[in-house]
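User: Please check token order:
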Amino acid sequence: MKLIEDITLLIAAFLAALFGQGGGVLYTPLQVWNGINFNTAASTSLFLILITSFSSTIVFRKAHKVDWGLALAMEVPTTSGAFLGGILSHYVSARTLGLLLSILLGVAAWFMLFPPKSKIRPKNKKPVSRWIWLRSANGKSYQLDLRLMIPIMLAVGALTSMVGIGGGALKVPLMACCLAFPFPLRSVQAPSWWG
């Protein structure tokens, strides 16, 4: 049985890498399907995502595709939320966690099928608040409202860590919908055969 679990996770990691995901959307369900306790499956999944994310960061850093300032600003609240979600998950039943995982996977699937278009807010010469961060990406300037970003990233971190999936499947579309992050989601996220 251990060999089957290892092979299943290896295939899941391959598929996740193929589609540009961390793999949590596959790791947790496959482990639960193989009879592993939900909390153990979620913890193992998060460890596997950590390894995948680290290796992906090395590749993207070499290609100069990492905005370190934005990454740190987003990951501090996400990691804080993930820590809180990890603690809270022990007080939630496996059935409720399974339902939460199903809902999050449904939301992620919706965003993959119908990716939102980024609504770029025009950049003012001067921010109207100290909570507005002026940024540039893909040759476009935009404003990032930290009052929205921080609670969104906290919530994503908490919810996804409770069920052992990475936040990317939710963060990327939320960055376009709620935070007006300017990137072409369809060309970045979808595989070439998607259209």
About this structure: The CA atoms of residues 119 and 180 lie 5 Å apart. The radius of gyration is 17 Å.
